[in-house]
Amino acid sequence: MSPTLKLTVLDQTPVHPSPANAIHGNAGQMSIELAKTCDLLGYERFWVAEHHNSGQFAGPSPEILITRIASVTQNMRIGSGGVMLNHYSPLKVAEVFNMLAALFPDRIDLGIGRAPGGDALATTALAWPNPPQDGSNYPTQAATLKALLKKNLPDDHPWADLHISPIHSDRPQMWMLGSSGGSAALAGQLGMHLALARFISPDHCHPSIFDAYSQAWDAAGHTDAPKRMLAIGAFCADTQEQAELLAGTAVYRKLTTAGYNNPLLPPEEVQDIRLKLPTSKQAEYDHLLSGYTVGTPERCKAEIEDLAKIFNTGEIAIVTVTYDFEARLDSYRLIID
């Protein structure tokens, strides 16, 4: 793999139900163990996601995981992939990440997104006693958040006199997350770096989204250079057969719309279910599998290189959701070794 291509980890803190994982503690602790290993392996960043009311993902508070992970790693940038801004006050997010940047200078990334990160029940509960945000305020929230962190709110803004402690010169890198073109122009206008989540919807993730982002960035007149990252789903093992088996857990959770609160299934059980699916569903399974990078180290590295060239990016983030923690750890190790 090209030495100039940067690899990043996007960790969704999956709940590994396998009894063999009991020695590693809970899902949050496994994220910490994964981060410590990836820090030594040479990954560029380690981002944690935000999910609510999920039986599959155990990361409702990325800022807490970021604090713990940053304290036990030395080399990687640590950040959110991302904070679901519709749930929160821009001031509170600014205060939290300003504090993180003070504690871990030049190592903190703030990635934000407009998705709910959970179901309607969780969204309603997070907003109570107010009604949930519908996303229409997201552009204003994002712009306000950046202005608060840069301390450049207009003088006539009602919050212009806000004081955000502690006072220091370091700021987190600001990223906007998107899975299609909806956030590209906004990220460019606001001067935020863009992380494009191909792992969510490969069919709707095209290089033209990055082109639109760059055009918006240039039109806004930003003087610094934009960063862009492509996030992919990847599963690596010693053989192609092992990798495809490993990926089955993630493929099946996308295949079943009612599975968000159900435990992740063992890959062997997924294959048993797959054989009993109707032909149309088996074809859908195969199509979902093809949207991931799956295979031996050689095959995964070649495909990652190809995607980096197609999307004209120097950084690829890798999402790996498996039933077994050791398999996930091995996958990250094999890809970068």
Label the structural class: alpha/beta
CATH architecture descriptor name? Alpha-Beta Barrel
Query: Oligomeric state of the chains?
Result: single chain
User: Tally the helices: what do you get?
Assistant: 12
Order of helices and strands: EHEHEEHEHHEHEHEHHHEHEH
Which SSEs are present, and which pair or pack?
Blueprint: E1 6-11, H1 27-41, E2 45-48, H2 62-72, E3 77-80, E4 83-84, H3 90-103, E5 108-113, H4 120-127, H5 138-150, E6 173-178, H6 184-190, E7 193-197, H7 207-220, E8 228-236, H8 240-255, H9 267-276, H10 279-290, E9 293-295, H11 297-310, E10 315-319, H12 325-336
Parallel strand pairs: 1-2, 1-10, 2-3, 3-5, 4-5, 5-6, 6-7, 7-8, 8-9, 8-10
Structure characterization notes:
43% of the residues lie in helices and 15% in strands. The chain is α/β, with parallel strands linked by helices and 337 residues long. It has a single domain, classed as Alpha-Beta Barrel (TIM Barrel), CATH 3.20.20. An eight-stranded parallel beta barrel has the order 1-2-3-5-6-7-8-10, surrounded by eight helices. α3 (90-103) links the parallel β4 and β5. α1 (27-41) runs parallel beside α12, α3 packs parallel to α5 (138-150) and α8 (240-255) packs across α9 (267-276). It starts with 5 loop residues before the first strand and ends with a helix.
